[in-house]
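Handout, tutorial session.
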Amino acid sequence: MTHIALIRHGPTTWNEQKRLQGQADIPLSSNGIKRVAKWKVPNDFIDFKWFASPLSRAQKTASILGLSVETEPAIIEMDWGKWEGKTGSELREEYGEEFIRRQKKGIDLRPDDGESPRDVRARVAEWVVSVAKNDVPTGAVAHQGIIRAMVSLATGWNMINPAPEKIDWDAIQLFKIAPDGGVQIDQLNISLISDGL
């Protein structure tokens, strides 16, 4: 079994405004930079081979954490298409009942001109297979959508119901990968908050 440790990037202004943030390259906010500065990668994970999403918020998070990363396009956030940058209330106003119907599709929700979570899960699954083949403990600084995809791969979660486990975003999410690319949850919510901060 190979381990994959995932960290979500720190907050951006769009996160703070509850805007859908997919592949738009929104940087960390000043609050986000301060938050990540309080994180420390536990020693158990320092020697992993680290990757980061191409987006600057993931790259900057990795940099603040002192991680040397390779860029991995497969772990970019979900493409929200024409919904990018909008809030839930803005979308409810624009789409009415149609927005609520589409939300209820869970993993098969598809924004206009965007990806579904199922599409994201499929590309993450391909990356996981490549990690399994290399058989090297691996870490990645990525996005909420990528971590949700990994939980779905591990549990079969359809994203219609709440996640089977509560996720702490100031933490590492650790998964075990079988040689065939099968995903299991190893340990969730391994704190990144440094002692004494």
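The second record follows below. Compare its token runs with those of the first.
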Amino acid sequence: MRQLPEVEEHIGLYHKAWREYRRTEELGDKILYDLCTKEFPGHLNKRQVYTKVWFIGHTYSAGLSRQIGKGATLAVVNALVTAEKTDQGISKIINVIAEIAEPLSQDKLTLIVEAHEKLLQIIKEKVGVRLFSFTSKYLHFHHPYPSPVPLYDGVSQKTLRWLYGLAEYNYRRFLDRFWQLYKYLLNEGVDATVKGVNRFLLRLSAQSDFKKWLASLGKRNKD
């Protein structure tokens, strides 16, 4: 694995990204955490589950409509409610995540990956699509703030690919690279958190070096 000169150059952005998050989006996120963990923690009441799926899908652009089409939110809701009535049980998966706290470790990441894969498969069986991003976000917000579950999205995936030179086509590989960055920041004396690293990845995606790389990648794909 190569060095991370991009991180060395932009490490100050981590602190800036965290300050921006605390000033702007943290309060809204805490409302969503409370909605999922305190107000509507269950997975049997269809109206409550719909509310959680709708807020997560729209607030964090989980791409449900793009990947599934019309009626996407209801399709996912039906998958979750149906599974909760069986031995699979969404609550069983969520309860495993609830026991995890930062700092991250390899053992904790293994539990997160396993929970993600179980929920991913439950939803796929009903809707026919593997919703990597939405699944990570549903797990993330069903843990009290601050959540140790890294958020998977297209921007973060591409930013890690820029840093490490590898494509991240699934959540397991994404977490492998996320873990490397998380450890690197801690070793550099940064008080890194999962939420902070997620925000840092988004902040890095706004840098000119990343945009140049992304443009060159698009050009190579066309060629």
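Points raised in discussion: The first helix runs from residue 5 to 10.
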